[in-house]
């Protein structure tokens, strides 16, 4: 199925449902990685398929990419908000309400999902986040202030924002009491997002009184959670399903 992006074009929502007409007990919409310039909704289809087999309504969504419809990261975030809203309507038709729903993704997609969930007031069309939890597979952008100024400047150019604006997309900047519950999966040898940055984000969330669980995978690098990239795929799926069913659906 499709949803309408912020510029009016149609983007994919890949839907995976529990079999045998089983009513889903929770739902999640996931956004792929690829540094905002690559990747597709197909990338997280294996994760969604496994989650659906565990009784979860799982959706993998596309969004406009930089150089392919998106001018800046702001366009990507706008699409994520629209996809989450479409997912909410879809989930409601299956009997699921906001407390049973989560968003998430991988790398850049996880960054977009977490950012959108932590800043619902930035959306004029969706004043409420619409989800109760977020799951991040090796999320990027945890603490963008930790980069040297020249690296920040290069990243600003890469994601299409003005000089000095990069930290406006740093997840740690948006930690407040009442942020959605989070589960983060991250490798200790991640070469894209250092584990220390993710730990700092986790610690800030906990200090603010939020639930944020960081599951560390020893010696695992970026993208470790994909099937074929090591032995962790099933572990990640099992932990994610447990988080969604025991936490999200219990509310």
What would you say this structure looks like, in words?
It is built from six helices and ten strands. It has 251 residues and is α/β, with parallel strands linked by helices. Helix 5 (195-207) links the parallel strand 9 and strand 10. Helix 2 crosses helix 3. The longest helix is centred in the N-terminal third of the chain and has 20 residues, at 73-92. It is globular, with a radius of gyration of 17 Å. Mean pLDDT is 93; it is low at 122-127.
Name a few traits of the molecule.
two-stranded parallel sheet; alpha/beta; globular; about 250 residues; single chain
Question: Gyration radius, to the nearest Å?
Answer: 17 Å
- Quaternary form: single chain
Q: How are helices and strands ordered from N to C?
A: EEEHEEEHEHEHEHEH
In whole angstroms, how far apart are the ends? 29 Å
Helix content: 25-40%
Q: Hey, roughly how much beta strand do the residues contain?
A: 15-25%
On the 0-100 scale, what is the average pLDDT? 93
* Silhouette: globular
Structural class: alpha/beta
| Biggest β-sheet strands, sense, barrel | 8 strands, mixed
Q: Show unreliable segments.
A: 122-127
Please give the number of β-strands: 10
How are strands sequenced across the largest beta sheet?
1-2-4-3-7-8-9-10
